[in-house]
Amino acid sequence: MFSTINRVLFVSLACLFSLTARAQDISIELGESEVALNETFTIKVTVSGEKIRSYDQLPEISGFQKQGVSQSSSMNIVNGQMSSTNSIIQYYKPIRKGQFTLPNFTLSVNEKSVSSPGKTITVVDARASARNNRALDPFDDLFGGNNSEEPEYVEVEDDAFFSLSVDKEEVYVGEGFNVSLAFYMSESNQAPFNFHEPGKQLERIINEIKPGNAWEENFNITSIQPERVEFGGKQWTKYKVYEASFFPFNAGSVDFPSVGWEMIKYRIAKNPSFFGSNRLQDFKTFYSQPKSIQVNALPPHPLKNEVSVGNYRLRESFEQKEVQTGEGFTYDFTIIGEGNISSIRPPRLKQRQKLNTFDPNEQLQINRGRGKVTGMKEFGYFITLNEQEEVALKDHFEWIYFNPQLARYDTLIPQAIVQVTGESKINQAISSSRLGGLYDLIEVEDNKLLNQGYKYYFSALINGLLLLGVILLGFLMFKKK
């Protein structure tokens, strides 16, 4: 009979809890209004029916110090229907006695806003622990209800670090070097970690390390993936969070300061139990070592402020081509290789008037991967030739660059040859372009002479009229006297 009553009571309480949970999806529960110096104040956020996927940092409280966060979850099945709740609890340790105010605040939990009115908290002297004076609950022995002691959490020693790595210590102006930021954990590491707001942290870090005297090619890492690496005689798991290549604009140095990366590090319960949370959320910040890259000036050259720096080769759209005089054709001068592809300029043109060409169409492709920036830049020229001859394009195009591996300037020279056949079109080209030239100049100069003649006669007429007016005025004044 007693067992049956208890079951009914348990089911009734469970139903009541379930109804309350459904009515309030997200709730905030504040701790006691009075705490002792050796006790903790808590803020508990509970979500019903779903996991806690995201939440804002809980507020700071004047007179208290945050002591970490714990998580808990529970599930109930009543009449075949399941309900669940998930909670996070932020602990606050009093620093001194007095009366302190927790102002009203709003949190975003699972992208939903929930508010709390806050409260006044009084901190009193430390006091001895006291067991709750309540009636004996028949379920205490089963669920550990008689154990009012809070679990003790210990910090596990970790074997992890955060690093800023570069692939070169010294470069030339315009030469690229790779930078990556990653969190490393050894295989022997026993401390449990989790990432904490990596997007926000990365935005801050990029603002701190991004040099103002270099072009950045960001590799745009969108997800943090584990990677197995080995160094120092140990196996590590690497979590790369950022990677980019930089191309310095001027000589000197590119400096990267030490930056901090915060991870969630859990403390483990000293005496784990089946119910309740066996780990306590805390935070630890890891710091990278500063780095400096020496940037050397390019050797003397007339074009040293204009040339690209990298490892490049030339790809042409044809080797041999036959065309008729006056017939247009397309020639693609494509630069392929490793370097700052965006900054590549068109090749230099020699004997431009002979090729009858205009500014080229451009096509760009950039690849970022395996620690390098590679790609191609294509310059497409439309060309016409009007004389029967063999044209070697090496006499008309060249592209000068600096090769940092060889530490010298080099030139990409075309190998393509165009065989032009047919009657000369040079006269047609002259007549179709505007005879203009001398004839237009004669007409313009003739007009200039006419205009100058008219201008002379007009000026003489005006001067004569003014002189006549002065004479008449003088004559009238003399006659009046």
Describe this structure in words.
With 481 residues, the protein is of the alpha+beta class. Helices cover 20% and strands 45% of the residues. It is built from 6 helices and 31 strands. The strands form 7 sheets. Strands 1, 3, 4, 5, 10, 14, 19 and 20 form an 8-stranded antiparallel β-sheet that branches. A hairpin with a 2-residue loop joins strand 26 and strand 27. It is elongated. It starts with a helix and ends with a helix. The N terminus is likely disordered.
Layout of secondary structure:
Elements: H1 2-23, E1 26-30, E2 34-36, E3 41-48, E4 64-78, E5 81-94, E6 98-102, E7 105-109, E8 112-116, E9 119-124, H2 140-143, E10 153-154, E11 160-166, E12 170-172, E13 177-186, E14 193-195, H3 198-209, E15 214-218, E16 226-231, E17 234-248, E18 252-256, E19 260-269, E20 279-287, E21 291-296, E22 308-316, E23 320-324, E24 329-339, E25 348-349, H4 352-355, E26 361-369, E27 372-383, E28 389-392, E29 397-403, E30 408-412, E31 417-421, H5 426-433, H6 437-480
Parallel strand pairs: 2-9, 12-21, 22-29, 23-31
Antiparallel strand pairs: 1-3, 3-5, 4-5, 4-20, 6-9, 7-8, 10-19, 11-13, 13-17, 14-19, 15-17, 16-17, 18-21, 19-20, 22-24, 24-27, 25-29, 26-27, 28-31, 29-30
